[in-house]
Amino acid sequence: MTNTPQFLGRSVFDLDDYSATEIMYILEAAKGMKEINLREYKKIPTLRGKTICTLFIENSTRTRMSFELAASRLSADVVSFQASISALSKGESLQDTVYTLDAMGIDLYCIRHSSPGSPQLVHKYSGKPVINGGDGRHAHPTQALLDIFSIWEKLGDIRGLKITIVGDILNSRVVRSNLIGMRKLGAEVTVCGPRTLMPSYMEEVYGCIVQYDLQTALQDADVVMGLRMQLERQTEGLFPSLEEYTKHYVLSKHTIRYAKKDALIMHPGPMNRGIEILPEIADSQQSIIVEQVANGVAVRMALMFLILGGKV
Amino acid sequence: MKTLIKNGKTFFDDNFVRKDILIEDERIIRIAGQITDPADQVIDATSKIVTPGFVDIHTHLRDPGQTYKEDIITGTLSAAKGGFTSICAMPNTEPVVDNIATVEYIQRRAKDLGYCKVYVIGALSKDLEGKEIAEMATMQQGGIVAVTDDGKCIQNAKLMLNCMRYAVNFNLPVISHAEDYNLAGKGQIHSGKVATQLGLSGIPALAEEVIIARDIMLAESAKAHLHIAHISTAKSLELVRRAKENGLKVTCEVTPHHLLLTEEACLTFDTNTKMKPPLRSEADRLACVQALADGLIDCIATDHAPHADYEKEREFDLAPFGIIGFESAFAVLYQDLVKPGHLTLERLIETLTSAPAKLLNLKAGILAENSPADLCIIDLGDTVLIDSDSILSKSKNTPWLGQTLAGKVTHTICGGKITWQAEPAAETNEPT
């Protein structure tokens, strides 16, 4: 390939820093990594001697495991720093935490933090590449990449696909990163949820379609993605009850029939079965929810490999 | 002691005219085309402008209680460097300025130092808690010039009404920091495109507007002078316009940052773009500029709000709100509003001097014989660098950090004494 995109030492704060060509290059690399994950001995020596730190200031077992597994399979050393934001705000600042970690010789940081923009801070303090593993409601680029990878693997070219994302759009970093990536690759994306859970200016910022009615939103969709609906939004006064939410926005056999036959069903997890999605859909033939998780490891391996300049 | 300022373009009767100024001790004793009287010191203001000392009715000096951010020494030195000779200190110190002892402490300390005149604004409610009326009358005997809970906003309309009715007794203007807590929520920046993009909680324009609407109605009922602090949205301006048209005593101020920056500045996650009210949309900004030019906005105020480096150097949503303002105020406004022709230099000077002084009845803001010798000399052709080495404030939290701005205050004279004098401009040797 001529004009090979340059990834060495680059951070992944969000997908807006990456072109469509670069995103596709990452997906190709992830395809190779996925193959490694299917082997009996799931390990290659490519990042031997490199140290990757997972810096998780917000709880997430699944994403952290995915990052750590990805690093291990590339033979990097992995260290993990976990703290709650309350502990961090009382004690050491993020700046001092990063200085401390950096003194131990970290080559790449994977960070999860409740504050938007914190991956940029980690990069500023360390000078090292940073992969954003989710910063508040802002971005979750590795989730978006694994979602796009999963669609691409099943349906091929993303261009022209109709993708519908349903749920708590307001609080979702997954939606924001997916919108950037999917729009770059030419998909037509519709977001759907109650008005109180829809941020303003969505059309202008992302060039997506906003729908408040599920049936209209699902019309002819190639891909349908549900989002986790949290009970705390109810106490925040954003909607009256989970029951009422489910009645209007649940992905079920009944509602999904407006989408294309065999439309892919996705969910970034963890799922609330019976609230935003019914088991009949989550566990159906169309569902690729479990595969998304497997693809997450492959995509993260690809990023680590490209950023740290792994040798095959 | 006599000081003579010669050959400057002097802001006199709202116009710039070639006049000399003779100062004796704390007063201006003569303003005339040519003064040849002997003087102890002569300042040559050739090719510079001479204006009344600037007046800032909205500042946070953090003293007493938070002197790691700022104290009265650094705060007034910073003010002097920016050309200010009279400033008003907001009451959200520790302890709160809700008692005469704290009023007297701040005034005495500032007077002893002599870098800048400091007027004190007292609390509206005790300890800024929004529960009981503060002892305004006692504080007024100590010298307060207005009352406010700035930084906080009384949510209880009944208490706000009673505060206003009480303040009217003593002719104290009531300054409103308009923010509905429920609407503002945990908001970090303006509820707009950028908040959506960055996933930061928004502070809607409505959070400001509903309180301004409420306070205008309360002020009408109480017959109070209501002054809206740091106005920031187009609809807020409409509310004030209607109140003024209805003959109410409602005034407002705007900050340099709301005149010059928008929500777009937050895209870099720079915590020096985080303040209350937040930087708004471009349409709001343009409305503020227009309203300042046409007189709807009465004056400029910096809302100088120092925070220590380590408080601002952190995650965006965990950093405190507020930015410093003294040292960049004139230069940013001159450079970005006057030079491109959005505002006349005369209107800028008026809104930095006589207009704010008039609002709070301060003896400041004009150049006239027998008035206080508070003035500043500005070289519009020179520049000022805003960087952490040169900023005199204890804190460096400004969105203009690292920038070189047009319009340099070369001298500030407060009460007849030179309180700021810049290094003379370096000779530039252009390579041939």
Termini separation of chain B: 46 Å
Counted beta strands of chain B:
18
| SS strand fraction of chain A | 5-15%
Low-confidence parts of chain B: none
Coarse shape of chain B: globular
Q: What is the H level of CATH, i.e. the homologous superfamily of the largest domain in chain B? A: Metal-dependent hydrolases
Q: What is the beta-strand fraction of chain B?
A: 15-25%
CATH class of the largest domain in chain A: Alpha Beta
Provide mean pLDDT of chain B, rounded. 97
Instruction: Give helix % range of chain A.
Output: 40-55%
CATH top level label of the largest domain in chain B: Alpha Beta
Q: Which percent range fits the helix content of chain B?
A: 25-40%
The number of E-state strands of chain A comes to 9
What order do the helices and strands of chain A follow? HEHEHHEHEHEHEHEHEHHHEHH
Count of helix runs of chain A: 14
- Assembly of the depicted chains: heterodimer
Integer-rounded radius of gyration of chain A = 19 Å
Q: Which strand order does the major sheet of chain A show?
A: 7-6-5-8-9
Based on the coordinates given, report the CATH architecture of the largest domain in chain B: Alpha-Beta Barrel
Helix/strand-derived category of chain A reads: alpha/beta
Description:
The complex is a heterodimer of chains A (312) and B (432). Chain A has 312 residues and is α/β, with parallel strands linked by helices. Chain A contains 14 helices and 9 strands. In chain A, strand 5, helix 7 and strand 6 form a beta-alpha-beta unit. The two termini of chain A are 16 Å apart. The model of chain A has no long low-confidence stretch (mean pLDDT 94). Chain B has 14 helices and 18 strands. Chain B has helices at residues 72-81, 100-113, 136-142, 157-169, 181-184, 193-198, 205-222, 234-245, 256-260, 282-294, 309-312, 326-338, 345-352, 354-359; strands spanning 2-12, 15-24, 27-32, 41-44, 49-52, 54-59, 84-89, 117-123, 146-148, 174-176, 189-190, 202-203, 226-228, 250-254, 299-300, 375-386, 403-414, 417-421. In chain B, the strands form 3 sheets. In chain B, strands 1, 2, 3, 4, 5, 16, 17 and 18 form an 8-stranded mixed β-sheet that branches. Chain B is globular, with a radius of gyration of 21 Å. The interface between A and B is medium-sized, with 26 and 18 residues.
